[in-house]
Amino acid sequence: MTQKLCFIGNSHLAALKRGWDGMAADYPDVDITMFIGLGHRYEHAYLEGHFIKTQFGELLDTFVRHSGGRDSIDLTAYDRFVVVGLGFDIVLLTRIYDRYRTVMNNGPAKKEVPFVSLDVLAQMVIADLREHSLALRLASMVKTVVSDPVHLCWVPLKRKAALRISTKKKLAIAKGLAAIRRNGDEDLVRVVMERIRVLLRPEGILLIEQPEETVADRIFTREELSQAAHIGPDDPHIRERLDDIGHMNPFFGRIMMNRIMETVAPGARVATAAAIDSAAEIEAARAQMEVQSEKRRQAPRSKQASATPRRRPWHRPLVKWGKRILGAGRKKKGES
User: Fold this and answer.
1) Is residue 333 part of a domain?
2) pLDDT reading at 159 higher than 60
């Protein structure tokens, strides 16, 4: 009997889709439908009866394009549901990391910082996730109709390059992760993630953890498994993609999909199919990373891009400001 699985997520589904394409033949009795949309577009999704629908054009278009023509999610048509990404990111812990202390904090204590239990800290992160992540909102919609548990995958841990990428949008993340590393609080992060898993279970939401073999230094994803690691010098979006700290490549996708299938469809792989060898996948990913890195190094300077975008010359804002001041008192042509 065919098991029908429904994946709901954002751009982080891309790596899983590419990973699944290379292993789907090993699961002849599993049928996966993926509904993909830009994360914030899911704000326009709503529950109507036993359907998740949207009237928002961009989300509707991506639903139809990636799900085989379906313009809504029929919650009675699938055996299992997996929600992926959609802002369910442990990096939100960095927003409150230095405002509270627990028994696991190693860094120096700030004056007048409240002491809280690990469960309270985890509850605060969950509250932040409910406010800023659409993953729990989508999972709750599914649970309104479906009695079985809904599975939820974290946004992958950031690649370690996040520590040196200083674009304005990612600077707060970089500072937060750097503080955690500086204080040796990586174990605190992992314990909070485990507490969140335990606290969400009574709601019928089961977390699927990122495989440990894909993790580096406790709180990062291995560099060779990132999308950025495999960017060639001819990629038209090379600078933007080298600055990407969160999206992963198909090697990660295969390892993660293997973990998901072990969780939601155990025993579904045909007996004659070889199991995914994570070590071999990681080694192949590392080899490809080295090839692309060498290609970028040898590319003409005009095609090269650093991990951090070039800064604007410091004097330009001053010149612009000076022109504005000098021109403020001038009369426009034709004025009396």
Assistant:
1) no
2) yes
